[in-house]
């Protein structure tokens, strides 16, 4: 194991696959257990559950490639070797993958923060590894919007009937006026929920440093984004078109596979 992983503040392992010329990097948080999925989540990482003939996280990697991003960082934790064994260096998919280990599961903000050294000073895109999107050009469109607005942070959102499991925005014309994590249904500022896709400038790391843990001792990315809003940084949203399914429950996992099969993907 010592040859495969190097430890500094957190473990980092870099493999050399295929690196493109673009400066933007891709980040996939994939360190959670997925307890809502039941017993199967204790056997394999939820990101490796198959949607069609590929693991859900491979669909995410393909979205990065469509957006022109081939330098990808995957934040792993529990059962990290399963993800490493699935992708290896990334050469099979013509990407270059860096693995960063989140030793403590203390929230999405910390998952993003522990990849800071691998990201360096570049802008970067984040897609949660247990999210299925179709069509896969959603990230390319979001990055184009982010650059057009010269945004510090851009959040992909979708309309949801039940927003209570998600971060929810208070929308302006195209700016985010406020953001709330997992609100009660009667307190939600809109029906526009964070879809698990973001584009950031490195200033997000300063905001993460200022966040405090919630009641579950987790650091929420929505809290860091709220700090950026309060500091008058440019924080925009774009509603994603197409299909978005978070596979974090058995029902939604089945829904993703039905969608994949019924649409002949």
Provide keyphrases for this structure.
265 residues; alpha/beta; Spore Coat Polysaccharide Biosynthesis Protein SpsA, Chain A; nine-stranded mixed beta sheet; two-stranded antiparallel sheet; 8 helices; 15 strands; globular
Rg measurement, Å: 17 Å
Topology order in helix (H) and strand (E) letters = EEEEEHEHEHHEEHEEEEHHEEH
**CATH 2nd-level architecture:** Alpha-Beta Complex
Strand numbers in spatial order across the main sheet: 1-2-7-6-3-8-13-10-14
* Number of strand segments: 15
Fraction of residues in β-strands: 25-35%
Question: Can you characterise this structure?
Answer:
With 265 residues, this protein is α/β, with parallel strands linked by helices. The strands form four sheets. A nine-stranded mixed β-sheet has the order 1-2-7-6-3-8-13-10-14. The longest helix is centred in the C-terminal third of the chain and has 13 residues. A hairpin with a 2-residue loop joins strand 4 and strand 5. The protein is built from eight helices and 15 strands. It has one domain: Spore Coat Polysaccharide Biosynthesis Protein SpsA, Chain A. 26% of the residues lie in helices and 27% in strands.
Summarize the structure.
With 265 residues, the chain is of the alpha/beta class. The protein contains eight helices and 15 strands.
């Amino acid at each position: 194991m010592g040859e495969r992983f190097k430890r500094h503040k957190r473990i980092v392992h870099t493999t050399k696959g295929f690196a493109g010329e673009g400066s933007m990097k891709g980040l996939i948080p994939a360190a959670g257990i997925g307890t809502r999925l039941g017993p199967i989540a204790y056997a394999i990482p939820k990101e490796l559950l198959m949607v069609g003939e590929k693991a859900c996280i491979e669909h995410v990697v393909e979205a990065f490639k469509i957006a022109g991003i081939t330098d990808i960082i995957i934040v792993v934790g529990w059962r990290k070797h399963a993800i490493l064994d699935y992708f290896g260096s990334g050469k099979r998919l013509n990407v270059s993958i860096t693995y960063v280990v989140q030793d403590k599961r203390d929230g999405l903000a910390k998952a993003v923060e522990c990849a800071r050294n691998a990201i360096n000073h570049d802008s970067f895109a984040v897609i949660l590894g247990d999210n299925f999107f179709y069509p896969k050009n959603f990230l390319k469109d979001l990055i184009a919007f982010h650059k057009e607005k010269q945004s510090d942070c851009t959040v992909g959102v979708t309309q949801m009937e039940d927003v209570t499991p998600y971060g929810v925005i208070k929308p302006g014309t195209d700016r985010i006026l406020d953001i709330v994590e997992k609100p009660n249904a009667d307190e939600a500022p809109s029906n526009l929920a964070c879809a698990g896709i973001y584009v950031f400038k490195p200033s997000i790391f300063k905001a993460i440093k200022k966040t405090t843990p919630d009641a579950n001792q987790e650091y929420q990315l929505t809290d860091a984004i709220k700090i950026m809003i309060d500091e008058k940084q440019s924080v925009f949203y774009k509603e994603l078109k197409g299909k978005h399914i978070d596979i974090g429950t058995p029902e939604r996992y089945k829904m993703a596979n039905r969608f994949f099969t019924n649409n002949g993907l």
